[in-house]
């Protein structure tokens, strides 16, 4: 539910950003016969400020997740998300600058809380799961992002639809002033943003009831007895602590992040997880943040001047909902079904390659697809979403939660995720500039750039080993063996059958 809330809060802004332009910058397109739009710098701030907060939150909460414990800081993220979701719908003042300023302030803090959920959710899930189904469980956490994106479109569609029914108005072309539908349209975007607080608040009690992960309690705190007691409550079975084995594992896990030993064992792994996540998020967030600009090209929405304000939100939300339901959502759950059969490595390579191929086709044939074959354009666009999620968007979340030792697992996941958000900022402040006006030349450039970006992700994937079928201690070398460092055999990409190493009972879960 944390990840459901994360996705809803991050992507619901795409459904209302054009409405904000109509309401608060009505004269920005004066003389063009089109409704107002957010100026490029303002649009980039509105859609990108939460990503800046997310990047910073990932690093801060990831670090404290290793220093203070996963559970201790887990509830803070939910409270911050709930408070700031409500704050995003408020305004300190009445001018357009005060409204947008308040929105950006609270969305930055909202992103800060969302950032904490990334490393903590992934780390907690990886440390609770067993090695046979660990990939599916971590991927299932991340798959809730797809559900959140669907609900972002659905809630915006329902709220705008209800208000549209009771507040009919002419199109912008017929009457620019009445087409703004004030005050209903102003309530609409505030309601959509505030609704993001409810799933966070609903989950808070259960999140606080979770015990600390046994791996953290045993390997970092050194309390094997408490780890055994905690897991007995979860699994409802009797577990004996093995203090001598825990002491051995702690000794093998003593080196810090900034050390030659970490660089020798996991330096290339960290480079692989950070670069692939960075490159993936350039493409993924470009797709999501700019889809409102691509929808007209695939005939899912019409010209803005032919609609009133709430009608435009409704059709953008409907298009976002359909693309998420048919393209985004299935990819996540196909990954959940196959990740422990195909492995992370193969799924990531396949996803990057197919995304690159489909984006190249859309870029090269953009004019033909836009003018003559809307259906094929929509299919190709949906397939890029499918292979993003049945591919690197899921695996880049899973791998950092498995590759690194317990002492730095949350921090390394946070560094990888923050690298991804840096890619998202490139999308929000860079790629989005090419798509705002919707002209053919710049749309083609954007799609071809994203194709090249995905192909780079394909090649950087070779830095990351396969983790399927191995325990976390075996992967990281915490069992006293070499782990999966640079000296590991190439066969680490494909784990041998019948690998039966087991962690001590206190860490089975």
UniProtKB/TrEMBL annotation:
This is Uncharacterized protein.
